[in-house]
Amino acid sequence: MTAQTLREARNEAAESAKRTEKIDFKMISFSLAGKEYGVDIMNVKEIAKAGRFTYVPNASPFVRGVYNLRGEIISVIDLRIFFHLPAERKEEEALESLIILRIDEHVFGVIVDAIDKVVGIASSSIQPPHPIFGDINVKYIQGIVENSGKLYIILDVEKIFAPERTEDQPKTAAREPVVTEGVPDPDRDVSASFIKETLAAFRGFHVTGLNEDWFSRRFAEWKAMRKNSDLQLKEASEADQFLEGFASPCTGVLWEDDYASEVEKAMPIIESKTLNIWNPGCGKGYETWALACILRKRYPEARVKVWANDSDLLAISMAPNMVFSENVPGYYQSFMVQGRNGLVFSQAVRDSIFFEFHDVLNANTLPPLDMVICRDMLSFMSPSDQERLSSVFNEKLKPNGMVFCGANESLGEGWVAAGTGAVTAFRKDR
Amino acid sequence: MRVEYINPFVEAAFNVLREVLQSDVKRGELYLKSTSMPVMGVAAIVGLAGDVEGRVLFDMDRATALKIASAMNNEELKDFDDLVKATITELANMITAQAVTKLHDLGFSFDLTPPAIFTGENMEISNADVEALIVPMETGHGKIEINVAVRERG
Q1: Which residues of A touch B130 (CB under 8 A)?
Q2: Residue B117 and residue B42: Cα distance in Å, rounded?
Q3: Could you give the strand order of the β-sheet that contains A150-155, starting from the edge strand earlier in sequence?
Q4: Do residues A79 and A111 make contact, with C-beta atoms less than 8 angstroms apart?
Q5: Nearest-by-CA chain A residue for B49
Q6: Mutate to test the interface with B, among A306, A356, A392 (most CBs of B within 10 A)
Q7: Which partner for B99 in A46, A386, B8, B70 could form a disulfide, CB atoms 3.0-4.6 Å apart?
Q8: 3-class DSSP state for residue A358?
Q9: pLDDT tens across B53-92, in order?
Q10: Which of A125, A130, A131 minimizes the C-alpha distance to A145?
């Protein structure tokens, strides 16, 4: 920062001091992809221009390397890549704007587009983050503040750089069910809430905002079918009967031609040359194979990787070596070759899929995703786990990323409907 | 963990244990775990690198370790001495190496680090953000838990 900008900063601070009585919060402002951000000055050690960082092999993509700051080795993080924002790649020798942050004892360098000045504000004028500012996940935003006509997003650097503590997760999980379980019963019917409970007990199916619409419709049907008497589900088979019609099209089989084409049509235009797709709860893997073929057809130029996982060991262990008889839907025939025991998918399709024995409630180590295909899995998880996973989806997806969910499921806040016809899909709200 | 990796580890553990102990070995139900876990008393750890990164941990209590080492050396060992430690280390090495060989035949290339052994009371392993596959093995000399955590190199 030059002397001039420092002086300006001071003037600025003095000015705003006149306007608002109490300036008790100062931040360094900077820009990322054309937007203004701020970080608490208490976390900032200094600012610098630096380049030629020492590359660290096998580090995450947002780690640009390490830098020798007067004898102290600090890691340098590119905040634009961290938040999946466009970052211009400067020439080898060029200097980057670096904010040196100190969090507890740790010192980090953070690369931003440009560093602006010091802004003084009253902490009472900081407003809570709102999803509308969301190039950046809300959980990393401390608040929003307006100062001399500019809107600053204050980043919570302690959250960004603090090591992820797993104890935090159960805490949030414990807090969240209140929201989802507070959904009013259709018709305020006692039997509806009984049915909800029995569905959860027999089949682990939880009625929440995710599938409330379907439940209300189905409950009305159920009442008509049972002529309003004997509505309760007394055993597991009755729960299954109630859940009939919930499953998405082509569950447990290779997707039929019509459905496959519809999914293909619903997929967004993606310019990136590598596509990362996540297919949690893939079961026996039929849906993953279908998906891999559709992806190859829709994005013939791209390098596609599908992470498919399920926590049912028996189902998933069959998935990689699936063999088919002659009557597979026409859509897939060009992707199949004759194997020893029947038709199998070609090596190219095979290589694009990772089948994993994995529980999605444990840590999910995935690269930034273009799409998530998760049909009818969330409904069979507890309300708090549903919340947790949909926020995992939100966090892992790139901007404009899509989630394909079950035909009778709908994601709530933070998602925009993007499905067509039989395909239910949601786009991450920016 | 990739489905293809599971069987080589299970088979290798089963084969090696049955061979070196010359007795019946039963495999328990496989499951996933990601919380921190107590170590029974003796833990041998082998690191994996290559296409993947991770580690295999062999966990058993002291009495089991002594009995297994006795069986493998064909003599009654009473103290938990260097010979016992070396024997358990070797067992870990044999199982992991056989699994890695099987994986290599399937086209996955893994490297392994020399095993290290940890002993003590009330130990706990916590790398909570890593999901591990647990393969419990019931041998005639006691229980061994094989804890495999590997993930693809991003």
Answers
A1: 363
A2: 7
A3: A114-121, A25-32, A35-40, A150-155, A141-147
A4: yes
A5: A58
A6: A356
A7: B8
A8: coil
A9: 889 999 999 999 999 999 999 999 888 999 999 999 999 9
A10: A125
Beta-bridge partner residues of A114? A31
B32 contacts chain A (CB < 8 A): yes
The residues, any chain, with a CB within 8 Å of residue A311's CB and separated by 6 or more, are A357, A358, A359, A360, B32
CA A366 from chain centre, in angstroms, equals 10
Sorting pLDDT into bands at 50, 70 and 90, what band is A169?
very low
List the domain range (segments joined by +) for residue B7.
3-152
Q: What is the DSSP letter of A41?
A: G
A44-50 vs A63-69, strand pairing mode: unpaired
B123/A contact by beta carbon, under 8 A: no
Token pair recorded at residue A11: 């003037």
Which among A243, A236, A240, A197 is positioned nearest to A219, based on CA atoms?
Answer: A243
| Domain CATH code at residue B125 | 3.40.1550.10
- CA max distance for chain A: 83
Query: What are the φ and ψ backbone dihedral angles of A287, each rounded to 5 degrees?
Result: -65, -35
Strands A336-338, B132-139: parallel, antiparallel or unpaired by DSSP?
Answer: unpaired
Alpha-carbon gap, residue A251 to A287, rounded angstroms: 8
Question: For the residues B21-43, what does the mean pLDDT come to?
Answer: 85
CB B8 within 8 A of CB B102: yes
Q: Please state which architecture CATH assigns to domain A3-161.
A: Beta Barrel (2.40)
Mean pLDDT over the full length of chain A: 82
User: A279 with A374: CB under 8 angstroms?
Assistant: yes
Selecting from B129, B131, B151 the residue whose C-beta is nearest the C-beta of A359 gives B131
Report the alpha-carbon distance of residue B128 to residue B57 in Å, rounded: 15
Residue ranges matching CATH 2.40.50.180 in chain A: 3-161
The percent of residues in chain A predicted with pLDDT above 90, rounded, is 10
pLDDT band, very low/low/confident/very high, at B125 (cuts 50, 70, 90): confident
- Between these two residues, A18 and A317, which has the higher pLDDT value? A317
pLDDT digits (tens, 9 = 90+) for A201-242: 888 899 888 888 888 888 888 888 887 777 788 888 888 888
Of A327, A269, A274, nearest to A302 by C-alpha is: A274
Check if A206 contacts B (Cβ < 8 Å).
no
A170 token code pair: 């159960």
The model's pTM is: 0.65
Right CATH for A257-428 from 3.40.50.150, 3.40.50.1110, 3.40.50.300, 1.10.10.10: 3.40.50.150
